[in-house]
Amino acid sequence: MDYLKTVVPSQLTAERGPNLVVINPGSANIRIGLATHDTPFNIPHCIARYTSQVPKKNVQDQMLNSQITTVQHMEREKAYDIIASLLKIPFLDEEVANNSFPRKMGRVDGYNPHNSKKETAFTWTDVYEQEPNSSLPLGVANESLDQHEGSSSNELISSKPKFRQFIFGEEALRISPTESYCLRRPIRRGHLNISQHYPMQQVFEDLHAIWDWILIEKLHIPLNQRNMYSAILVVPETFDNREIKEMLTLVLRDLRFSSAVVHQEGLAAVFGNGLSTACVVNIGAQVTSVICVEDGVALPTTEKTLPFGGEDISRCLLWTQRHHQTWPQIRTDILTKPIDLLMLNRLKETYCEIKEGELDAVTVVHSYEDGLPAGSHKTRLTALNVPPMGLFYPLLLVPDVYPPPPRSWFHDYEDMLEDTWHLDFPRRSDISDGLYPGMNVGLPMWDNYPVFTARPKKEEKVGIAEAITSSILSTGRIDLQRKLFCSIQLIGGVGLTSGLVPAVEERVLHAIPSNEAIDTVEVLQSRTNPIFVSWKGGVILGILDFGRDAWIHREDWIRNGIHIGNGRKYKDSYFLQAQAMCYINS
Fold first, then answer.
1. Of 145 and 403, more confident
2. Cα dihedral sign for 510, 512, 513, 514?
3. 3-class secondary-structure state, position 254
4. Comparing C-alpha atoms, which of 172, 168, 170, 206 is closest to residue 186?
5. What InterPro entries does the database record attribute to this sequence (predicted)?
6. Phi-psi region of 266 (alpha: psi -120 to 50; beta: other; left: phi over 0)
7. For residues 127-165, b (16+ Cβ closer than 10 Å) or e, as one string?
8. Residues in contact with 178: Cβ distance below 8 Å, sequence separation at least 6, in sequence order
9. With left for phi above 0 and alpha for psi between -120 and 50, is residue 434 left, alpha or beta?
10. pLDDT at 318 over 80
11. Is the pLDDT of residue 398 over 70?
């Protein structure tokens, strides 16, 4: 600690950063990079595997509840009308007189300097391996062709292009449905995507393949050099203990890092913004979580999980335009054509915002028919301020339902953590799945880590304003409540939505019961990109943690399964906060 008081933050980064890899896995994207990087790689968390047989469907996933019931449809229309009255726009089925135009325009082609970039169509992925001689000089290539003229037809057939066996990231999302590939997403709605259609072993193999590809191709860290690197896992609050354990096994046993440590996303976000106390609202692509942090310690009783995120806003955008008949007559299907979801996400990020009044925009929508070049359709989108309001009125979003993992998935943890939480000595435990027989189980790895039951976590069926209010009020102390209501932190890609901050402040204030002595709500401005703030917090925690008491070493994990730590946590959290502030401002 004495060294930390005198060292320059840049010197800390230079000393510790080059050998620290920070990994922040999410449902839709994974953020990963060296601690010396300013920003991580942000890569779609998916893999497409080549199959010799044409699959019945090119997206292998859990059974989706894509059919909206009559009750859900009525609730969605009712939610739309409530939002419309708040935004002072016509109701869903209200006819707008022709003389009401021109409408209030949000953005139009002539006034959007980013239009040329934003309206560029996505292209289908080239699924063939690159020919080794494709980069040869022209003369050499011609000479090679001359030699082939005398070759037999069998030789020409044998030189037929080969399919790429694995395709990762955005390229995997841009594969045509006509190609013989199966797209898989190993994490869905904040949990490992295990089901009868996607076995546990395949989920782990896909995670290993994706992460290994990123480490080799993006970070240039081959397998034989990873023993010189340590990993910082910044995991979502939605993960249960078994999922965290499997992540550690993947990092230490399979990817062969020398050591690893786990931090919660919410806790890392607080340090990423140079704070010590805040209510962290993480609005991801598929799930939203709320958790309060006091003096650098996460409060597990305040955690709330909401089953919707940015992708649901994109789906709502499509539904809204189709209802208003502003969407072109094209086949847009985000379930069978992930490239359509890429387009909708981009439209949402470019045009959706929260503001009163009618919000329209003229833009170009693209159609992606099987294997054909993208078609362009100029159209006028309307009610662009409605979809993001679904964060406050989730009945508008109607999220797809993903069944939880089988209950047997949680069985081995009833004895592993719940019974040992209050023990002062280690003991032996037999794990029912046999993965780690004779596992040493003792004190928890992190004092401030919440105790998760052996059941899937409960999801709240409320909007983010109610979730924030309920989370903060559950702390039970008026002084802390006042501090947290003035220290709300929005992270995740949706946090960049224009107008979201004042909307959260206004609706949270209205959600506070009248008998509570609280009259001020404030959302703090993020010091860094909300998408990367948790990853940045992982960097700061990893660099400042000189004692490394909570780190798990590869040999210990493989031999014993569970690390018996000393229960250390950041006792001097205010000093760490000052160091984090100094680090960010340097």
1. 403
2. negative
3. helix
4. 206
5. Actin, ATPase_NBD
6. alpha
7. beeeeeeeeeeeeeeeeeeeeeeeeeeeeeeeeeeeebe
8. 370, 371
9. left
10. yes
11. yes
